[in-house]
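Translate structure to sequence.
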């Protein structure tokens, strides 16, 4: 098996996570986050549609990290995001972090809206 180290250029990768926090480009941030190639900022959770809608035109898809386990995307969130021309995919937050890192390394126009995990 050949392993390839990811190189992020100017993008800000997810370097780690734990109960209640994420480590983005060397900085530990608590609570739900919205991350793009440019960095991370607080996110109000699944009821905070406006923060995601503000990305319309600059991203193609957002990965919704639903915490420890995968959960359904609330219908109103899916409708709002897809109505703005952004695809949305739900997965556990650890899977969303890994997927974000791989695709941002490829230069894709993506974001991850992440709810923290609760289990250590």
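Result:
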């Amino acid at each position: 098996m050949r392993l390839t180290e990811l190189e992020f250029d100017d993008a800000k990768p997810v370097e780690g996570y734990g109960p209640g926090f994420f480590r983005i480009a060397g900085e530990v941030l608590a609570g739900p986050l919205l991350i793009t190639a440019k960095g991370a900022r607080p996110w109000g959770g699944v009821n905070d549609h406006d923060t995601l809608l503000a990305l319309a035109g600059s991203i193609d898809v957002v990965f919704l990290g639903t915490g420890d386990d995968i959960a359904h995307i609330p219908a109103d969130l899916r409708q709002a995001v897809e109505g703005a021309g952004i695809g949305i995919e739900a997965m556990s937050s650890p899977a969303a972090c890994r997927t974000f890192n791989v695709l941002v390394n490829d230069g894709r126009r993506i974001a991850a809206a992440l709810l923290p995990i609760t289990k250590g």
